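Limitations
The structure tokens in this dataset are predictions for the assembled complex, not deposited experimental models. Users should treat interface geometry with appropriate caution, especially where small molecules or nucleic acid strands are included. An illustrative entry is reproduced here so readers can see what is and is not provided.
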Amino acid sequence: MDKSTAPEFSSRRIWFAFTGSAIVWTGHFVAIWFLGEVGCLGGLGNQTVLGINLIFGLSLIVTLLALILAVASGAIAYRIWQQVNELETQDEIYASHERQRFMALFGMLAATLFTVAILVQTAPLFVIPIC
Amino acid sequence: MSTPNTESSSMPFSHISSDDFHAVWEIPKGLWGRLTVVQNSVIGLRFIATSFLFFALAGIMALVMRLQLASPENDLIDPNTYNELFTMHGSTMMYLFVIPLIEGIATLVLPQLLGSRELPFPRLTSFAFWTFLFGGLIFYSGFFFEYIVGMDALAQEGWFAYPPLSGIDFSPGRGMDFWLLGLNVAEIAAIAGAFEIILAVLFCRAPGMTLSRIPIFAWAMLVTAFMMLFAFTPLVVGSLLLEVDRKIGTHFYGPDGGGDPLLWQHIFWIFGHPDVYIQFIPPAGILSTIIPVFSRRRLVAYPLVIVALVSTGFLSFGLWVHHMFTTGLPEISLTFFSAVSMVIAIPTAIQVFSWIATMWRGKPQLKPPMLFAMGFFLIFVLGGITGIMLAAVPVNQQVHDTYFVVAHLHYVLFGGMIFPVLAGVYYWAPQYLGRMLNSRLGTINFWLVFIGFNVAFFPMHLAGLNGMPRRYYTYQAGTELEVFNLISTIGAFIIAAGFAVFFFNIFYSYFSTPVTDPNPWGADTLEWGVPKPAPQYGYRKLPIVRSRHTLWDQDDLHKADAKTTQIIEVMAERPYRYRAQLTTGVLDGEPLEIFRVAGPSIFPLLLAFSMTAFSFFLIFDLYVLGGIAIAGSILSLIGWHYEPKTADEYRTEVEDQIEELTGLPVHVDGSPRVARGSMLLTLLTLSIAFVTLIFTYLYLRLNFENFPPPSMSIPDVSLALIGLVLLWISGWGTYMAGRAVQNDALSRLRIFLGASIVVAAIAIGLQLRFYLFLPFDATVNAYASAFYVIAVFILMIQITGTVFMAILLFGVLRHGSRRPAHKHTSVTNLVLFSLWIAGTTTLGSFTLFALPHLL
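Predicted assembly:
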């Protein structure tokens, strides 16, 4: 079978690029919801550390972490896309490079969308009283 | 765009006649044949026809409700009947129409669309259909028991059945039991169907159909099927908890024993909101298929549309609380959900703009499928805009539970689902009914439904804004609501007329001249390359995919390298004694295996029947008969998997010859890759169920300080912990059995498998001894209920795992030394299952024994 001669990327890398941002968004959403819900119901709404509300501070840390991971996923996708894009398109049946380019493009677009989602869902922390 | 060559004539096994090939795939004849058939082409049509039957029933109920509301203070029906009607209408549409219809279309279309011969587990498809049918019949038998037998057997609590209204105190009749158990059976059908769809799209595609060449409808169904697993499983668990609250007296949702009605709302809407997108994504896939065909232009921004589908699948699980904005949850939580409710508009808009751009750059032809697609745009976009309004907490709180919400949900669901599905029916009818539906009737059908819909539902926005609450059986005169309601009723009857034309069109066209052109619309996807009349196996010679738009870009569907050519030619001629199918790589679609697909069987029907009978007997507290039904289910399962012929008898030198010619393994007892995939999906589903139970435990714990109450203590847990250690030892034993399979060591395989069973049985015995003699029972309070439900879950998975081991050992012993150890590939799946059981039991034990001391 005329398997493509596309560059080999580690499967972890390409799968992180492909699905990483979506999974990161899921984790971030569950984490900030949990902090808001449990923190408020558990009476942590007024606790502060270094003058910063505890729930607010923890939510920001989680958000920062999530943003780093989501952007990293997009950046890796971009790198793969660049590498695969340099290849000439060939009429192949099992076109690995075409599929890799698709996965990388998907990863870039998804990372953009989920980064926006993470930012938007964090915005209320700056506007609404925590509890 | 020329019609490609679909069947070239190279025949390496020319002594095999065409009749033999047809005979293997033939639909069994007679009544017995109708009961045992498993083919996707038959089961898919049955799904669709049955769904439309339920749709018609729900539609009739809607008409009666609209007649009641046509004038103020009307007494056409009494309040109780009205409650029953809106409950049955909503539940039927949500559970018995939309989801089965979508699965039916997927069952029918996917194999040919993917260039495959059949779905990987046809018996599972058949089981899904029968389960759906019987679940629906249980649900509707409430009418019989209510109006003929005279008992209280119809639910009145709405399609989301909030406790405490749905609890035993406020709904003491059996209506809720019919609702819960009937629909639970139907939900199991949905999950079974989801398995089949995922496995088909991932493993059973044509050679060359890489991830980037998968047709968009298949992508949409893949996303939807995963969503079904994540959404329906919590609902099944939550419904069972509600049923045990009602039947046994546990306290999950009843505040009197420490339970919380809001827990149900969380579990229900974790299902309920993604369900809206489960209903929208497949129709979006249909539109992305149809619009390019009728615009004569490739879909604009295919990768972006795939991103939109997948991201909608994820984001839809972050919206559920927007149904609970008025329940007093912390404000900050509400805003997170509000934000995601707005963000999800982005992927939806991406798709809408892609469709508009495709039409803009193409030459749209306004044939019936395209008319329905255009109708979708207006209606769905209006529904989307009111959705954004409802995502805003203040607006939501104002219009909550008014007719504004009724209007919104119908604009989204009717516009987003029914219009595209009707487009799909008109589009695929030539392929699967063999007849082109009448175009003039189709146009009349469209305009009646489109006009009727807007006449019926647009005034509901205004009625809602004027303060009309939903689910009230009447309203007072002089409240400015009369005119809105009268117009809505007129609109409802116009819709009914539209659907009468639709059903008549199908009936009328069915007797028209059969379609002979394989591709009457000039479409680009593989199902249209199958010759007419379409044989049961689709392509005899499998197509080779080199482009996303196969029929538009490829003149020859079989042009390939020598190796692939050899594979598809051999597949076209051999093996002929059973239904042979190809599995291909998940990423690049390269051929990997040839395997035998299961043929006709009565056992899917028997299993569905006995499972439904079990639910039915539970409704009436007939536990002995329920036990007999369980025994029937177990026997049916054994029969399902027990083949009269052993794998060795199926396998002959022909299979060896095929392996030599193709270089692919031939598995006459099923594909190990598909089996592994299905095991992973099973574990995923069970994990979701387990997480739902842990969520239940934690939710109750977080809401109540005394959890467990100080008066309750857990005695010495050493027996349970010894059981846990033994489970890990048993898991290690199955791991060693798996190693024996890899090393082809038959005697070690038998020893480790046998020892694992014994150790697991001792572990179960010790834990049973512990749990059965606890000093409290499940009905004491919410803590005890949550404790027991986790304990029962982990015991049940252990028992299931041990039975699985015993069945495998039986298989190993049955074949004796005739079958080498490396052929027992199912054992590797057992390793996964056993380790998962040990891990889950560890987490469950931690929750039960350690968490009370930590939280």
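Some entries come with short summary sentences. For this one: The first strand of chain B starts at residue 579 and ends at 584.
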